[in-house]
Design brief:
It is a single chain. By secondary structure, the protein is mostly beta strands. It has 3 helices and 29 strands. The protein has a 9-stranded antiparallel beta sheet with strand order 11-12-13-14-29-23-22-17-20. The longest helix is centred in the first third of the chain and has 11 residues. The chain binds alpha-D-galactopyranose. The site of alpha-D-galactopyranose (GLA) has 9 residues, from strand 24.
């Protein structure tokens, strides 16, 4: 049954009230203005709150998770994501903090691929390669947001990427739904359809810091993956699926992130400046399975990542360099946050041995990822 507060909040949102206030502990969704883009369009900020008091703030600009709170072992909620205080902060340029990524998340070698015999050229925005959808990927567009009625607060974001946009073929209708579940999990459901054969790889690029401060080097990570994808100097997979056993990439049991992150005798660590690789999940089924667990010992916070995707990019904020000042005036130094981007393998359009990322007319792209929070003493 729907809770009254949720309905009330939804109704107020639907009726256009901008200053709806939810009481503490009321589940619901609230809409406020997030300011104006430089082109004059308005962006909104939606606050989703569940009944335990967890909150996700999401803007329809880039579908960005602006903040996400989670309780520590004493029940204290803190924001555990990196981001900016204002819309202009995001618009000035950020390394994909909290954003929806598409049409193709991660890299496509040299910005080129061939599909059904036709060659396509995309922007090369990262070391001669195409990264995260191009110059104006899904992280920089304004999505149409609609609160979804149901037992749990949810927000549906829709965007149609035009045929030829950023060089990709086909009009692509994308729908992403964020649901803040009762069990302190943020669920993201992705859906897409196309009118021409195209390639699709959607993800979210949230940077997490479960301590809410400092760096992520003492976070403990488990990845349910016995192989990873080694890369070349420009971070394009070589095509090999390499066993993690005996390498700094072995996170099959809970391992402190900082333990081997600077082991530059390993060429992969050297190329990635730390971890910036896709791990191949041992369970290759398309069902939702546990891909990763992160534990932060000082706060006791635990994050579990479940996904229907075949791989997960573990990125340790190696390119953060202290030049960005984020929420609350915090300077984002190297390794202030970690990303666990669930996805298809990078560069799949050029690697016939990787699971396909092609989407054809009549098919529906459908994936789901859950970030679930709990604590351990
Ligand atoms: C991804 C990439 C990294 C980096 C970040 C953004 O995670 O794999 O190499 O580009 O995005 O800085």
């Amino acid at each position: 049954m729907k809770t009254l507060p949720f309905l009330l909040a939804t109704l107020l949102v639907v009726s256009g009230c901008n200053s709806t206030k939810m009481n503490e502990q009321q589940a619901g969704i609230e809409k406020t203005s997030f300011g104006k883009l430089t082109d004059g369009r308005e962006a909104d900020l939606y606050t989703l709150r569940n009944e335990t008091g967890m909150e996700a703030k999401i803007t329809n600009y880039g579908g960005i998770i602006v903040s996400l709170t989670a309780p520590d072992k004493n029940g204290t909620f803190s924001d555990i994501t990196l981001g900016m205080d204002s819309l202009s902060g995001y618009e000035k340029g950020v390394p994909y903090f909290g954003a929806l990524i598409g049409r193709y998340g991660n890299r496509i070698a040299k910005g080129k691929f061939t599909l059904d015999g036709k060659a396509y050229t995309l922007a090369t925005n990262n070391m001669g390669n195409h990264l995260h959808g191009g110059l104006k990927g899904f992280d920089k567009v304004l999505w149409t947001a609609t609160p979804v009625e149901g037992e749990e607060p949810a927000l549906k974001l829709a965007y149609t990427a035009k045929d030829g946009e950023e060089g990709y073929p086909g009009n692509l209708n994308v729908e992403v739904t964020y649901t803040l579940q009762k069990d302190n999990a943020l669920r993201i459901d992705y859906k897409a359809t196309t009118d021409k054969p195209t390639v699709v790889n959607l993800t979210n690029h949230a940077y997490f810091n479960l301590a809410g401060q400092g760096d992520i080097l003492s976070h403990e990570v488990t990845l349910n993956a016995d192989r990873f994808l080694p890369v070349n100097e420009t971070l394009i997979p070589t095509g090999e699926l390499k066993p993690v056993a005996g390498t700094p990439f072995d996170f099959t049991t809970s391992t402190v992130v900082g333990k081997r992150i600077n082991d530059s005798s390993d060429v992969q660590i050297k190329y990635g400046l730390g971890y910036d690789h896709a791990w191949v999940l041992t369970d290759s089924s398309k069902t939702s399975k546990l891909a990763a667990t992160v534990y932060e010992p000082t706060t006791g916070r635990v994050m579990e990542v479940f996904t229907t995707e075949p791989a997960i990019q573990f990125y340790t904020g190696n390119f953060l360099d202290g030049t960005l000042t984020g929420k609350g005036g915090v300077v984002y130094q190297k390794r202030t946050g970690l990303c666990l981007e669930t996805e298809h393998y990078p560069d799949s359009p050029n690697q016939p041995n990787f699971p396909t990322s092609t989407l054809r007319p009549g098919e529906t792209y459908q994936t789901s990822t859950i970030y679930k929070f709990s604590t351990r003493k």
